[in-house]
Each structure stands twice: as structure tokens, then as C-alpha cells.
Amino acid sequence: MKRALLLAKRNAKEILRDPLNLCFGLGFPLVLLGLLTAIQANVPKELFPLDQLTPGIAVFGLSFMSLFSATLISRDRSSALLLRLYTTPLRPLDYILGYALPMVPIALAQSAITLLFGVILGLPWTPRLLLCLLTTVPVGWIFIGTGLLCGSLLTDKQVGGICGALLTNLTGWFAGIWFDVELVGGFFKTVSNILPFYHGVELGRAAYAGTLSSALSHLWVVLAWALGLLSVAVWAFLHQMRKN
Amino acid sequence: MNAIEIEGLTKRYGALTAVNGLRLTVRQGELFALLGVNGAGKTTTIKMLSCLTRPDGGDALLLGKSITREPEEVKKLLAVSPQETAVAPKLTVRENLELMAGISGADKAETKRRIEALSGQLGLQEVLTRPAGKLSGGWQRRLSIAMALILEPKILFLDEPTLGLDVLARSALWEVIRSLKGNMTIILTTHYMEEAEELSDRIGVMGAGHLLQVGTAAELEAATGTDSLEKAFIALAKEAAK
Lengths: 244, 242
Prior knowledge:
The complex is a heterodimer.
Chain A: H1 2-16, H2 19-41, H3 50-78, H4 81-86, H5 92-100, H6 103-121, H7 128-153, H8 156-174, H9 181-184, H10 186-194, H11 196-209, H12 212-243
Chain B: E1 4-13, E2 16-26, E3 31-36, H1 42-49, E4 57-62, E5 65-66, H2 71-75, E6 78-81, H3 93-103, H4 108-122, H5 137-149, E7 155-159, H6 167-180, E8 185-190, H7 193-199, E9 202-207, E10 210-215, H8 217-224, H9 229-241
Parallel strand pairs in B: 3-8, 3-9, 6-7, 7-8
Antiparallel strand pairs in B: 1-2, 1-4, 4-5, 9-10
Helix pairs in contact in B: 3-4, 3-5, 5-6, 8-9
């Protein structure tokens, strides 16, 4: 465990010392939240109510966790740092924990800042906001698992395309953050219901609204996706480890 | 006890036999250079010896420990400085060294002692607080070797340590490698004949997965009837390609 924590500490430093990570991971969701709230202030119709928008933007921000984590792993593979570590007494579990664990506090901090910014913009403060924050943990694992999976299988250039462009777009479009998925309906709604992003956002919204039954129905989907993705990611990481 | 005893080591990738029945003994404290053209089997041999790849046949004992039966024990004896620089770019030089020392099980006091000793030996004091990713290629290679040395290995694998370096950086790194001689067993793979001749006690020439010839530079020249290591190497490589 001590060795896993050493690797986790190193990985956290690598991510937090990259100014681009801070810009995209933290800055971009906040800018988006501020911008959409400013638009809302100038239109008479309620387009982006803060109690709906803020949990959504928090989930959107989490999609950057995949990019951070996958980029780090794929770069460690291409620079042979992982190869060097494979010759040390580190065990497979140490690698998995070393790459996954630092993402948890980073994701939690990012979500907390986003929710706090929502409060600053006018989102009413209630203790349920803490419950909403807690719901970002299982949602965060979906993105952490995706990062581990992509980092294990893809090159750092491919990671930029898949996690940086595709995943953030999928989250943005199919999570129902800025428009109601029910209104679009059809195929779009079906895909949204299959993918985990919509459920992640609805879970956060339900937690904030205090509708427990609704929250639970989305929580199971989120947990199933998180568990599935993490299982596949662990398999992929160990597979590439053996291949080396 | 010998540092390395290789007996019939074999590795196949599909129809290709990358290393074929390798037999070799390396003494403790020896610097042994492995020469060979691309695809000769050098890197695969190193990967098997450092427990990165499992052999399909044969075995090797590193200070009496089997790479097939006791890989975890073998890993405690060795360190690898890969062909790529293999450093954590956003970490400072000191943090890179602390990471590797910690992974080897050293506590804070021991880590500090090792870093001070290594910094003096490799001249790293002036760059200890700089991010590794901002260092020049030569300094990164030096750090890469330091990250292997901080594990205090009994056997050190240096895979193409001076690849792509300019003459001055290469010369500086040769000094570092010379200073390590005798303290540990070193296996060096290189494409540079002068590097092998300058640094090693013995040289093994690999070709098509086989160990073609082993000896000092003079012995290889005598065996091939040539007057330089480069000519001896070319003669052996051509023979292997037939």
C-alpha cells in the first residue's frame, strides 16, 4: 500500500502541475457555468435554472478526469517510465491504485468548486448540496475507469482525440445538461438512457432536490457503469502490462 | 557465484524466434556489453533478464535467483535504465529520485542519504530542484541512470544509454558509467562500437537471436581476423545474416 501511495502522490503532482489541466479541468466548467447563467439573466424564459445546470456542469467537468488520467498513463507508457517501474517490486494492484486513487480527491475538489461557484451565482444553499457533492464520487469513477482504460490501450495522441474530444462531447450532448433529453426524444433519448452521463446528472439533480427514489433509480445505473468500466480498465491495464 | 548464468534462454513471437537458446555467464562486477544490429535480440534478452518478458524456454539465474521461478526476488536485485529517458517530467530531479527510493522500500533518512551520495557521484546537485522535463537530453539520461542506481542494484541494465546524445554529453556519461565499474555488474547494450570497446570488460555479439561470439575486443578481432572491433562486428553480423 505504501508503494501505491507513493505512485499516487507522484501522479497527483504530474496532473496538478500541468497548467493546461487546471485551465480545462477547472476553468472551463466554471466559465461555462458563468456564461450560461449570464445568458439566463438576459432571457425571460427559464433556460438554464441553476439547480439543474450546476449539477450538470459538475458532471461535465468530471469528464476531464478521463483525459488527465489517460494522458498520464499513455505518456508513462511511451516514455518507458512504466517499463522502468515494471522492473521494481511494485505489484499490479499498486499500479491500479497508484493511477486511480489520486483522481478521487481531484474530482471531488473540482466538483466542490463547481457547486460552490453555483452558490456564488445564486444557487440556494441547502445541506442537500453536500449530498449532491457525494453523488459525484460514483460518477467520477466512471470517468476514472474510462481514463485508465484509454490510457492502457491508446497512444497519447489517440487519448487526446478519444478522451479530449469524443468523451467530452458525448457527455455534453447526451447528459441533458443544457437541454431536456425528453424534449428531443427518439433515438437521442434512447442513447442518453443507455449511456451513464444522463443518469449521473439526474442523480446529482435528484440529490439536490431531495427526491431519494429518483436518485436511487439513477444511482444503480451509475454504479453498474462504474463497476463495468473499472473491471474492463483493470483487465486492459494488466493486459498491456503482461504484453510489455 | 556468478552474477548471471543464462542457460538456453529462448523467446518466440509467433513464427519469429527473437532469442534462440542463449547461453552466457557474466561474472560479478563485470561490465558486459551486448552488441547487435536492430532485431538481433539484445532488448528481448534484457527484457527477459529483468523479468519484463517471460521466456518460452530456458532459464537464467541472477545471483542464484531464477527469472522464471523467483521473479519477485530477482526484481530486488536489479535495476533498468531503459533506452528512453523514462523520467517523470513534472517532478523535480529530487522528487524523481525520492519516488524510486521509496518504491525500493527506503525510509526518509535512507532516501536522503542515497540522494546525497548519488548527487555527488553523478554531479546532480545543480539540477536537483529543476523539473526533469526541462532538463537537456544529457541531463535526463544522467537522471535516468541515477533513478536506476538509487535502487542500489546488484545488477544494472543500461539499454542504449548514450543514444542520441552529442559528443560532450556522451563523454560525460561514459565517465559516470566508468565510475560504476566494479561496484556492480553492468549489462550494457549499445550500437556504438567505441562505447563497447571503451567501457566493457567483455563483449557479446548477437545476431538473429543467437550469441555469435563472446570475448574482449582484442579476442573478437583475433577470432574474425580483423583489426578493429567494428570490422569484427560487421564480419560476425554478415555471417549471422547468411
